Amino acid sequence: xxxxxxxxxxxxxxxxxxxxxxxxxxxxxxxxxxxxxxxxxxxxxxxxxxxxxxxxxxxxxxxxxxxxxxxxxxxxxxxxxxxxxxxxxxxxxxxxxxxxxxxxxxxxxxxxxxxxxxxxxxxxxxxxxxxxxxxxxxxxxxxxxxxxxxxxxxxxxxxxxxxxxxxxxxxxxxxxxxxxxxxxxxxxxxxxxxxxxxxxxxxxxxxxxxxxxxxxxxxxxxxxxxxxxxxxxxxxxxxxxxxxxxxxxxxxxxxxxxxxxxxxxxxxxxxxxxxxxxxxxxxxxxxxxxxxxxxxxxxxxxxxxxxxxxxxxxxxxxxxxxxxxxxxxxxxxxxxxxxxxxxxxxxxxxxxxxxxxxxxxxxxxxxxxxxxxxxxxxxxxxxxxxxxxxxxxxxxxxxxxxxxxxxxxxxxxxxxxxxxxxxxxxxxxxxxxxxxxxxxxxxxxxxxxxxxxxxxxxxxxxxxxxxxxxxxxxxxxxxxxxxxxxxxxxxxxxxxxxxxxxxxxxxxxxxxxxxxxxxxxxxxxxxxxxxxxxxxxxxxxxxxxxxxxxxxxxxxxxxxxxxxxxxxxxxxxxxxxxxx
Amino acid sequence: xxxxxxxxxxxxxxxxxxxxxxxxxxxxxxxxxxxxxxxxxxxxxxxxxxxxxxxxxxxxxxxxxxxxxxxxxxxxxxxxxxxxxxxxxxxxxxxxxxxxxxxxxxxxxxxxxxxxxxxxxxxxxxxxxxxxxxxxxxxxxxxxxxxxxxxxxxxxxxxxxxxxxx
Lengths: 580, 166
Ligand SMILES: Cc1ncc(C[n+]2csc(CCOP(=O)(O)OP(=O)(O)O)c2C)c(N)n1
Ligand SMILES: [Mg+2]
Prior knowledge:
The structure holds two protein chains of two kinds.
Chain A: E1 2-3, E2 21-23, H1 24-34, E3 39-42, H2 49-55, E4 61-63, H3 68-82, E5 86-90, H4 93-97, H5 100-108, E6 113-119, H6 135-139, E7 145-148, H7 152-167, E8 173-179, H8 180-184, E9 186-188, E10 195-196, H9 208-220, E11 224-228, H10 230-234, H11 238-248, E12 252-254, E13 269-272, H12 279-287, E14 290-294, H13 300-303, E15 314-319, E16 333-336, H14 339-349, H15 356-368, H16 382-393, E17 397-401, H17 405-413, E18 422-423, H18 434-444, E19 449-455, H19 456-462, H20 465-471, E20 477-482, H21 487-496, H22 511-518, E21 521-525, H23 531-540, E22 545-550, H24 573-579
Parallel strand pairs in A: 3-4, 3-5, 5-6, 6-8, 7-8, 11-12, 11-14, 12-13, 14-15, 15-16, 17-18, 17-19, 19-20, 20-22, 21-22
Antiparallel strand pairs in A: 1-10, 2-9
Helix pairs in contact in A: 1-2, 1-7, 3-5, 3-18, 9-14, 11-14, 12-15, 16-17, 16-23
Chain B: E1 2-10, H1 15-25, E2 30-37, E3 43-51, H2 54-66, E4 70-77, E5 81-92, H3 98-107, E6 111-115, E7 119-126, H4 128-138, E8 143-148, E9 152-155
Antiparallel strand pairs in B: 1-3, 1-4, 2-3, 5-7, 5-8, 5-9, 6-7
Thiamine diphosphate binds next to helix 17, helix 19 and helix 21 of chain A.
């Protein structure tokens, strides 16, 4: 697969003889700029100093996090919000090891990232040198690809390949390990050419016969469901999805990572499916006769008990990654390729079909089982806080989360309407992702309000990055849904371990005071009547701002499909009815 | 069902670790794995024997293809290929039994590659079944030591993906 790279305007291709001889460090900086990098995240150390010296006056906005994990999540949030490749740089050994959680997070959610790690001198590799770690060995299973550069002549091409691999096909993190002697060795710059990799040819156009077959199946179906994952957002295919779903008249349900790909305020949206999905989405899936999966991978949190998942359905699966197809469910009509292209083509082939009985049934489920919580409670219900954040921002904010109950409530009670406006660690479920990812997103989209809706325990993991936000004047907002528990753990202990809350609460500091100490604004809310005004004040702040909402402590996320149960076997619906 | 997966990979450090690590991480069981050079110095050939249903083998193939340094993957059922292992065996062969051992060696088209006072070192390159049969035949004499490579294989000529068309 050959693909021209896109040189930035300052760097037109040059003839080889005219190209200068430069050090590895200079080549790295020049190649990053050539690849369109204007922002990166990183932390210095011994063996990366030659490169940092060249970054001293490079035209790159460089953000130093307080911990490399934070830097990696920032690059990740930057990439998810902008669609560009996020870049993170660290020293060898401890610096590289601190990236592991961040890289694995990006890998599980298919986020395009390039991680540059410095390495000890080539002749010391394997000697247990100071700050040596086998970085490529450690990161091999959590990267889309990684490589160590052992000859400066390969350096420039390796960086170009890294950007190409990270940003094409099923996107993902690529790591390049660069020994310090390569940073100082010299070599002639290479002209920008085509990239051709024998073992990597992502298929972009879907097979036309498959597309036609899929369209025919859709045209015949009486009870179809569209099941959309993060792949549609990666492919920037939301507009095509909308045109397709509207023309073919299909109900749409989304995975956690798919939220934002389809406007949830539209009637045909079934919202999220799966373990904490809506009853109407899960019922529709269990009853559908055709499931059209797009850029989704039938994760166990989505399918529940696999054997009884969508038992009456035929499956169409559209995905850029052939390995995702028929991995968990047996697919009847696979279509491998780019979702944007395939949806465009398929829209031409599908016909409008009324499906009144099916939509009536769905409307009835929606009426009987809407998402509910005890809105009349005098206490601050977490869901209430999230609804109020939604009311105050509508679809004009990028929402980021930590991991836990607050993440699920944010998925459920915030109406996501636009792609790249909901950023969450879905696959790995990384607590501590929220704040740094929000900082990265805000740097990518400085004119958009960015709110991290976080858990108290999640926030504890990476709250040091508040200092980074203050230093670089990145006015992210943090709303802590503070239940004083690792709420999701507590919920499982309540339901499955006889309410023995073993080690699932930790003592947090007064978050507002911590925020002030970091130089941010801190607000504490412990009355329901103060929620709205606090949100308004937060949105008006020009500084990074933390609002600590002391919410009802033992609230649960409903509905819930317990592990091993089928999707239609949801707990909590009776609780809904009692609240009606 | 037994499948032979033949993967052409970049001849680079770390590729074997990547492939082996992927098998472990995805809990795929492999029977054997053999790596060697090809006619192109930039490429190596990995021959992997996997036992599993079609779905498992399909996943193995796709996951292998996903590795950037893996250039090409072919999946063969055992009947579609010539598949041989190489075995070296040290078998007890005192002078009075030597002729019997040599008769066995000839019958199996094996080769005596070294001979000591009490033992003979025998080499046999053939299908797994032949190797197993030879082992059984030698057992009564006493096998001191034995090493085997994994299977290497090449497609038969009359197949669509055959060696000739590559
Ligand atoms: C890094 C990491 N460690 C542990 C877990 C397991 N885990 C999942 S949710 C959760 C509790 C989260 O608590 P909090 O951030 O307060 O959110 P809440 O559920 O209370 O909304 C834990 C410990 C995880 N997902 N990530
Ligand atoms: Mg909590």
